[in-house]
Batch of 3 targets.
Target 1
Amino acid sequence: MAFGQWIHHKDGVMVPTYGPCRLVHDDSMSILRTTKLSTAVPAVETEIVRVLVADSGPIQSQLLTRALKERRDLEVSAVALDGSALQDYMQSNSVDVVLIAGNHLKDFGLLRWLRVSHPGVATVLLTENDDRDLVVSALRAGAKGIFLFANTPFSMLCKCIQCVSRGEIWINSQQMNYMLEALSEVPTLRVVNSNGRLLLTPREEQVVALVADGLTNRGVAAELGLSEHTIKKYLLRIFDKVGISSRVELVLYAVSHGEHRPAEWMPSTA
């Protein structure tokens, strides 16, 4: 993958660069002083990043751990790709970055647990493909980086580790496009009866999805570009169609009968 395709995130801003971690802005200014400067170059202390490799494949895990241990700036350990193994290790050891083998990951519950239980630890998903659903789901679950292990040089993985350990995000341009597309989509929830027949119009499905997501009538109205009065009318119509009488019942019904799907944006005049 060409260097120009990588995106480097610093202080909440996506910055295109010609290689990850090459552009860093620390909001400082260079000040000229009249005093004589020493010509001696001070020794730079290498900051050690503590890395934990979590993989269910012992051979691959050993090879990756061995390669990373060759780096003087990394302190590397490995555990099985298992929630209890990760929990046991991280209870008694300090970790800065966790590398997780994405191809062996059953779901994203492990990423969510790491985000909630260890918010200071950066998680990088190692994967062999740029699958859109995988990228979006992993970043939503808390991953700080998506690394395409199959077709990216090993040296870039070391840069990725350093970047995420500093609080930055490691994604390429394609992965960033996936996230932008996901953010621009209006969610809908397809509501069907026991026979699989659609009960609601596309606009009503959008209203249900936003209500189920916790938005108030005002929030739903702002999201869809409609008035609160119109949203109230939609809800009354939805209640009548589904046979319920409250927002709580609607959310419960949506959870048990709904089917998530992407949706086209519908103009506010619809």
Target 2
Amino acid sequence: MSTRISRRHLLQAGAGALAMQRAATATPPAGKLIVDVHAHLKHGDAEKTEYSAKDIVGVMDAVGIDRSIVFAMSTTTQRSITFAEKAVAEYPKRLIPFLYALPNYERPVLADIDDALTNRGFRGIKIHAGECRLTPYVIDPVLELAGRRDVPCLIDATGSPSVARRLAESFPHTTILFAHMGAYMSRDSGMIDAFIQVAADYDNAYLDLSAVALVFKMEEAVQKVGADKLIWGTDGPHKNPNLNTYAQFEMEKVQRLTIPQADKDKILGGNIVKMLGLT
């Protein structure tokens, strides 16, 4: 039996109930930034869908997101840098650039990554196991560099808690955000529990809450590892059912949790603000 649920199915199932509750859903108090840690200029879907900076900021304005971390995947490291630089040049006060780490057969990319982090204002690295094996001889130099440059890595480990544990343990000075609490839209509660345990066991391991199907696992994670280890994102933009509703739905997953408002504020922005030193 499949352990996945489609994004469209989840959104349609909850849309009516969420619409009725929006009026009662509190946003963080004034002065609390809402930051999306997971916004795609280029997606990893079958169409390799691209969104402009204008598209992303339009969604942010519509749903109340103050800042977004943006990156492009399914492309080379150098092109990902170009994508993000162009977007941030258009909206320097709203968008925060991450680059995409992907080995290149034609040339080494560590120098490009280091230059972007030290000279071009990039604040972190996106890594995806769907396009890059997370074995030591492939990805470890990137994690080591991230630790030296004191930038976080947002890693989609595609449902492998053993890989997540190896990375967290091998690179204690590198901050790692594991995307989707383990795997995109997964309904495998055991796998998600294993990722929560990694976050509990390692100070440098955090959980990205974008595209999580089992929303109750977010609340369990708060109880097990604390709100300080959870970082909110949308994994957007997405048109299911439309750009604004999708982002609002992702935000409401956190806003509707039965946890203190102070914890929601940390998850929706406070933690990444502190991590990156945002103002």
Target 3
Amino acid sequence: MKKRLVPMITAILLAFAMMFSAAEVFPGGAVTVEATPTADYRVSVSSGYLALRTAMAYDASNEIGALYTGDTVCYISTGNSTYWWVYAPKLGKYGYVNRNYLVPISSPAPAPSPSYDSSKPYTVSVSSGYLALRTAMAYDSRNEIGSLYSGETVYYQWTGNNTYWWVYSPKYGTCGYVNRNYLIGAGSPAPASTPSSSSGANLSCPYTVSVASGYLALRNAMAYDSRNEIGCLYSGETVYYQWAGNSTYWWVYSPKYGTCGYVNRNYLIGAGSSSSGSSGSTSYTSGTKYTVSVASGYLALRTAMAFDSSNEIGELYNGDVVYYQWAGNSTYWWVYSPKYGTCGYVNRNYLY
């Protein structure tokens, strides 16, 4: 009898051992059998691998596994803004990964799928090189999944932040992030589509370029950056105001290039629909007349509301006359100068 009980007891103990080996014991004594998490993110790296780590830090000593493009992970919790705690089915392990190299397979982020909104096309415009299609909203060579060149098209899906947009690329048949400052097109909230000819632009508000030297850059973004230049505008050339991007940059149409872009408004002179600049024009001289009064030297006529020798376009002396057009700010007024036959900014404190 005792001999027959031994195998039976051993089998029962083995069964209990197997049951508890697949369970996780939580504080309080409760025993829960853990279900396999569902994969909801896919790894995407341009080269190498994404490390599964024991800590939220970039350190070779904390790596416990290597995940390659196409491998999946299951999101468990957020460690911080960079690292997530995930389960890697391939490795059968939990650990931290850099979330910037994960592409969502399902909710809550949009899936990189050929199913996309094609109602908001944009054209890539870079002065050189390419615009990277990325897996994360960050400038990092490791998150690049494609190279987009000037003239190629993408479709806006949604706004990630004020710099990066989530777009669909027909070239790659997938979605990703791009820097929106290198896109021009007809989708909201960017400016109206770039006209292929003057028929598509508002030509009622001409302005003349005025620079002391060099050129005024026509840009595809509201920022001073050599990489966003799409044209060079020189003194005397004309552009047509379309709308104000911000207090510094205006979206204008350039007949020279047959396209629209941003320019620094401080280097434009004109009076909107009546900016012929001819001496005695009623659009200028109908303003209040002021006389220059300086203790010595001259009052500078400027292209910008700033005291800077580089923006001077004329010298006004005691007794010279100007006509008020509008107040730029509490110090500078936009005036018409019959002496120079053009408009510019002057320090209002030297007018009476």
